[in-house]
Design goal:
alpha+beta; Rossmann fold; Cobalamin-dependent Methionine Synthase, domain 1; 3-stranded parallel β-sheet; 11 strands
Length: about 450
């Protein structure tokens, strides 16, 4: 028997229905800590511990490494990573079969090896936060004039033309959501999964046509530009207007702290915004887009018809529209709204490969691991006007939504913060004035 409930109430519900196993799905990184909490609560509660009830973990932000290293140690019972929903039936079957003991021993042995490999990788030397800052990217701000956007403030885009968004779609993640991992379009002729991928692609194209022509979904978005400067080495102040006298929000940054090979710097997103004490007037952009307005009605129709396949297909395509919309507006920003590369004429393949100037980092992603800034961003952008909101756990609703920042500097690159040290955590606590336990909770994904 399966029931979907929030993590905070899942154990109560599991006991109520006499569940044979518990499953957790994580959409965004804050849910990873919640999963570890649920595992510890299962360990504390004799109902789960004494019955050895399995805990299944899956979702977009999860991994086998995280499950083995951060979740499994909290619970003596079985903790199993499930890569995608299609694998859950096989895992559940193994757990309920007469071969369950052998299956669980195999999982336990594998996770112990994962933990050993992870521990060996963790041995990479760390710099102090001062040393990491001394190795920041070298940018000649004295000889660089940041481009000024064509407007200051926010602009909404409602009922955006879906046909235009289709030009910017990246289909590779569509196949990944079904457990097919090769790149598009090569996946269509892959010797192993080509036939299955081609069939899936044809069915996806057919439903996408119905979505667009039938106007099943609505795409809404917001773009905003504001004056900005970096402060405290790793933070970015965003100002209301050109007087730069009122700070709308301070975006806190996290810096790479592992030791790099010669010639490789330790990056933080604040490095790509001119320092306040340089006297250079810089700018930053923000955006929020959704491709999922109206999805509930069509989900319900498929669910009522018992057509789970079409429900999953619809969600996967709505995600593609949201990401495609983010790509569409970013291209408009570069070429027109900010206009720092007005002559850009990259093909979609080059855009997917991120060969454009500037970046659009999103909260919760590798360069910006903390989701907390979403709250201030959503308030500043007034995302409610376009039908977007945040849950208490910082997940965006509709689920097929994207938000982030725009940085225009030619040296701005995407990167992975990786692990940070206790000294950077202490510095972050000092800069934010927040409680250390709270900081450790929101930065849990990058703590050693």
């Amino acid at each position: 028997m399966g029931v979907m409930v929030p993590c905070a109430k899942i154990l109560e519900k599991a006991k109520e229905i006499g569940a044979d196993m518990v499953g957790l799905s994580g959409l965004i990184t804050p849910s990873l800590e919640e999963m570890a909490y649920v595992a510890s609560e299962m360990q504390r509660d004799p109902y789960f511990r004494e019955r050895n009830i399995p805990l299944l973990v899956g979702g977009a932000t999860t991994s086998k490494v995280h499950t083995a290293v951060k979740i499994a140690p909290n619970y003596e019972g079985p903790v199993i990573y499930v890569p995608d929903a299609s694998r859950s039936v096989g895992v559940a079957t193994s757990l309920m079969s007469d071969q369950a003991d052998a299956y669980l021993k195999g999982v336990a042995d594998e996770y112990e090896r994962v933990r050993e490999r992870h521990a060996n990788r963790q041995a990479v030397p760390m710099l102090t936060i001062e040393e990491a800052r001394a190795n920041k990217p070298a940018i000649d701000w004295a000889n660089y004039a940041p481009p000024r956007p064509k407007f200051i403030g926010r602009r909404t885009f409602k009922h955006y033309d879906l046909h235009e968004i289709l030009k910017f779609l990246d289909w590779t993640p569509f196949f990944q959501s079904w457990g097919l991992m090769a790149q598009f379009p090569a996946i269509l002729t892959d010797e192993v999964v080509g036939e299955e991928a081609s069939k899936l692609y044809a069915e996806g194209q057919a439903m996408m046509k119905r979505i667009v022509e039938g106007r099943w979904l609505t795409a809404n978005g917001i773009v905003a530009f504001y004056p900005a400067n970096s402060v405290n080495d790793d933070d970015i102040e965003i100002y209301r207007d050109e007087t730069r006298s009122e700070v709308l929000l301070t975006w806190r940054g996290v810096r790479q702290q592992t030791q790099k090979r010669g010639g490789v710097d330790n990056k933080c997103l604040a490095d790509f915004i001119a320092p306040k004490d340089s006297g250079v007037t810089d700018y930053i952009g923000m955006f929020a887009v959704t491709g999922g307005i109206g999805i509930e009605q069509h989900e319900k129709q498929f669910q009522d018809a018992g057509d789970d396949y079409s429900v999953i297909m619809l969600k996967a395509l709505a995600d593609r529209l949201a990401e495609g919309f983010a790509e569409t507006l970013h291209a408009r920003v570069r070429r027109d709204l900010w206009g720092y590369v007005p002559d850009e004429s990259l093909p979609n393949e080059a855009i997917i490969d991120e060969q454009y100037q500037g970046i659009r980092p999103a909260p919760g992603y590798p360069a910006c691991p903390e989701h907390l800034v979403k709250r201030e961003m959503f308030d500043l952008l007034d995302c409610a006007e376009i039908g977007m909101r945040l849950t208490e756990g910082f997940a965006m609703m509709p689920a097929s939504s994207v938000c982030g920042f725009y940085l225009s500097h030619p040296q701005a690159k995407y990167f992975n913060v990786g692990n940070i040290g206790a000294d950077q955590v202490a510095d972050y606590v000092r800069r934010t004035g927040r409680d250390e336990d709270d900081v450790r909770r929101t930065l849990a994904s990058v703590l050693r």
